[in-house]
Amino acid sequence: MVFSLGGFGYYLIMSLYMGDLFLTIGFITIVIIFFVIITIISNIIFSVRIPKKFESISEFDTKLKWKSPLTIIGIILVSFIVFVAFFPEIFTQYGLNEITRPYVAPGVPYDMPSSEHPLGTTKYGYDLLALLVWGIRGSLMVGVVAIFIGLGGGLLFGFITRRLSELGKNILMGAMLIFYILPSFIIIMLISLFFGWNFIGTMIIIGITLIPSFTRIIANALFLEVNVFKSIVKYIPLQIGIALIIYESIGFLGFSDASLVNLGLVTNFGLAVISNNLFVFILIPGATIVILVIGFILLHEGL
Predict the structure, then answer these.
(1) Is 127 helix (H, G, I), strand (E, B) or coil?
(2) DSSP letter assigned to residue 198
(3) Do 299 and 68 contact (CB within 8 A), yes or no?
(4) Residue 3, pLDDT above cutoff 50
C-alpha cells in the first residue's frame, strides 16, 4: 500500500511492471547512491560518538543462550512452523494442486468461513487455510535453500579474506558492502526482469543476496578470533527471517508465480475486497507472515 502513494517507490514499482529497464536501472542507481551516502555518514557518526576500545577480544564472543525466554518462545514457534511444513495434510484436506493455477476450484471467491472452508476462500475460490498451510511450507523451503546458498558463499569469501592482502580485503569487503546495503528485493526484481519469475530461480537469487551478510559475519569473527560456529548459529535464524521477508514482499507486490503458493501473494489477493470491509482476507495471511518472521527473529534475539 505504501508503494501506491505516488512517490519514489510507486514509480520504481511501475517501471518494473512495465518492464522499462533503463528507468528501473536509473531508480536503482539513485537508491545505491543514497544508501552509500547514509552508510558513510552513519559510520562516521558511530566512530565519533562511540570511541570505546574493548579491552579484550573475548567481549565480542557470543555465548548461545538456549534457556533464555526469547529463545524458548522462538524454538516453540519455529518448531510449530516446521511441523506444519512437514505435515500439511494434518491441517487441510486440500492438496497443493487444488489451490494453485490452473486448477478451477468449485468454491465461491472470497466466501466467508464455513464448515468446508474454516477460514473462507480467497481469489479463484481457493481454500484460505490450505493456502496458508502450503504457503508456510514453501516459505520454509525458500528460507532453508537461501541459507545454504548464503552460508556457502559466506564461508567461501569469509575464509578468502584471510589470505588476501589488506588492499584486496578492503576491495572485497567494499564490494560486499554495496550489495549489503542495497535493498535485496530490488536486486531480485531487477534480475528477474531479465530471466523471468520462477520458484527455483527466486530461491537461488535470495540466497545470493544473503552472501554479503554471511561474509561480513564470518570475516569479522575470523578477524576478532572469536568462535565462528557460534556466530553462524546465532545469525542463521535472522537471515532466514530476512529471506522470508524478501520472498513474501515480492509476492505481495504481485511479482510471484501465480501457479505457486506465496503468502505475500495471498495477502495481495485480499486487497481486492478490502474496500468491502472484508479485512479477514488480508489480516489472516498477513498475520501468518508476521508469525513466521517473528519466530525466527525471536530465536536470533534470544541466542
Answers:
(1) strand
(2) -
(3) no
(4) no
